[in-house]
């Protein structure tokens, strides 16, 4: 049984980096590709690599794409809820 297309691409890229004396690191856990037994995926923007499990992606999903936390645009922050008369509500958990 042949390996999925993504796996072949990952191996080709890592092989060329190993020839240069470098090893690819997972951008989440810093594990080295050369010592890892897990599947890897590349961020489609910065091209850095991560384990499927570290990226929270199902390794069986061949259509998965990763945009890492560094490349994701900041989500707009919502203002805290406002109560009656425009006064911000404050909650205290006991």
From TrEMBL:
Name used for this protein in its record: PHD-type domain-containing protein
Key words, A-Z: Metal-binding, Zinc, Zinc-finger
Domain PHD-type: 23-74
Alphabetized CDD domains for the sequence: PHD_TCF19_like
Leader sequence residues: none
Entries under SUPFAM superfamilies matching the protein: FYVE/PHD zinc finger
UniProt keyword Zinc-finger, yes or no: yes
Single GO term (MF): zinc ion binding
Classification via SMART domains: PHD
InterPro entries from the UniProt entry: Znf_FYVE_PHD, Znf_PHD, Znf_PHD-finger, Znf_RING/FYVE/PHD
One Pfam family of this chain: PHD
């Amino acid at each position: 049984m042949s390996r999925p297309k993504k796996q072949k691409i990952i191996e080709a890229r890592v092989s060329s980096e190993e020839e240069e004396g470098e090893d690819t690191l997972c951008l989440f856990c810093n594990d080295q590709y050369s010592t890892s037994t897990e599947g890897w995926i590349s961020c489609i923007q910065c091209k850095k690599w991560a384990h499927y499990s570290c990226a929270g992606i199902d390794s069986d999903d061949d259509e998965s794409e990763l945009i890492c936390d560094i490349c994701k645009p900041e989500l707009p922050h919502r203002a805290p809820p406002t109560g009656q008369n425009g006064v911000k509500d404050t909650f205290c958990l006991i």
